[in-house]
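Good morning N.,

You mentioned wanting to compare the apo and holo forms, so I went ahead and generated the holo version with LQXTBERG. This is what I fed in:
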Amino acid sequence: MLVHAVDGLIASGVVDRIVIMAPIEMIDAARELLAARAHAASSIPVDVVAGGVERTDSVRAGLAAAPEATHVLVHDAARALTPPSLIARVVDALDAGHRAVVPGIPVADTIKAVDAAGDVTGTPDRSGLRAIQTPQGFDAALLREAYALDLPATDDAGLVEATGATVSVVPGDPLAFKITGPLDLKLANALVADATLPATTGAAVTG
Ligand SMILES: Nc1ccn([C@@H]2O[C@H](COP(=O)(O)OP(=O)(O)OP(=O)(O)O)[C@@H](O)[C@H]2O)c(=O)n1
Ligand SMILES: C[C@](O)(CO)[C@H](O)COP(=O)(O)O
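and this is what came out, ligand included:
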């Protein structure tokens, strides 16, 4: 998954440097994997540093390892099959002047809010919801400001929202799905084995 994610970033043609945040006990294994991959000869530097307990700890470590960055993409290795075209779309939006950009796709299920007892407390209008993917792109100064708030968050855009800055959504892609459970892994393996797979599903719409 890490190798696929890195190769996708390189293939996008829009990143200058990649910093991997890995669990400390997997740093050597990650370096070996990356050195052995087909694109190891790419001129784009790929560094591996220690991540943290939570994803925000890992991103904080990544930001510290890239003090020179003016723009940052935060990507999940778990979204290993993210199409390069999606990565380029996020950077295009940053180039157009947006300071925080996330890919999103419409939700296919009806979403319910529930309370601690499991009783439904509301049904938000589905047309106004998006499932958010990565990479999430930021003006680096804005992301550093967001991290200075030291709040918990499940994604980086959530921290940026807390600063009051606007976060823009660009069309995501179903291929950028997060490989979380065994079914996701089966799907990812089938997609990787499928030589007829298009570079993008072309199904990217924000509605
Ligand atoms: N300490 C952590 C935890 C997660 N991640 C990032 O978050 C992604 C998703 O990892 P994880 O939280 O384990 O996601 P899931 O497999 O979806 O598991 P969970 O249900 O616990 O969220 C990883 O690819 C990695 O990029 C990270 O950098 N540092
Ligand atoms: C960043 C993210 O992929 C956006 O959907 C998601 O919030 C990551 O969650 P995780 O629990 O760290 O996998």
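The longest helix spans residues 84-95.

Happy to go through it together on a call whenever suits you.

Best,
F.
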